[in-house]
Amino acid sequence: MAPAFIFAEQVRSIVKSGKKEIEIPEGARISSAATDLIKEHQIQIKTVAPGIAASDEISAPKANRKKHADPSAQKAKTDLQFENSAEITEEELEEIVNRIVKRFKQLKDGEAQREESKKADTAVKKKDESADADDLVICRCEEITRGEIKDAIRNGIHTLNGIKRITRAGMGLCQGQTCQQLVARILTEELGLAAADIDPTTARGPVRPLRLAVFANS
């Protein structure tokens, strides 16, 4: 036979009726909210045998109790359910703990996978950006790209004059007026040097063809 339960709403019915005594079946369970009301109103508890009918308020059907349900009664019912759920075997408890640990592990593994995926996406993006930057034309006169200049530097060419001889960057019509600073910047980035540590290219005076008559007249 299932044990009876005493809720706060039943005790309130006793209090409203003016009674100072409550009859409960032997072995009945009293919720914490009902216990507080019994103590507060100093109600005497009278235990009766399971076969003997208890007070009307105690033996009221569940349907009637639902009509007058209140938050305190719901809390009391939750307390009793929690009390019953405490009766759990060690095997069941171990199984619950294992499920929780497994769930946390899955969440952790999922987070790690998302982090790795994010790092991979970032690396691919940086690689694509770097590839696009290497296609940038630095010397327009000779159509020399940033990638060609970087390859020369990584192959041991560490001066502006050396890059000029190997790649022809700066040998065009402008004679390095537009690209020399860009090449110097690439050198500083690749070698980790300051701009002052980069030697400028060898300066040569402008040369253009002249008639011999110019020298004869001078």
Report what the structure shows.
The protein has 218 residues and is mainly α. Among the domains are: 5-85, UDP-galactose 4-epimerase, domain 1 (Alpha-Beta Complex); 134-197, BFD-like [2Fe-2S]-binding domain (Arc Repressor Mutant, subunit A, Orthogonal Bundle), CATH 1.10.10.1100. The protein is 57% helix and 9% strand. It has helices spanning 8-17, 32-40, 56-59, 62-67, 71-85, 90-134, 146-154, 160-167, 180-191, 212-217, and strands spanning 5-6, 21-25, 29-30, 44-48, 137-139, 144-145. Strand 5 and strand 6 (144-145) form a beta hairpin. Helix 1 runs parallel beside helix 2 and helix 7 packs across helix 9 (180-191). The protein is rod-shaped and about 145 Å long. The relative contact order is 0.07. Residues 56-69 and 82-86 have low confidence and may be disordered.
Lay out the secondary structure:
Blueprint: E1 5-6, H1 8-17, E2 21-25, E3 29-30, H2 32-40, E4 44-48, H3 56-59, H4 62-67, H5 71-85, H6 90-134, E5 137-139, E6 144-145, H7 146-154, H8 160-167, H9 180-191, H10 212-217
Parallel strand pairs: 1-3, 2-4
Antiparallel strand pairs: 5-6
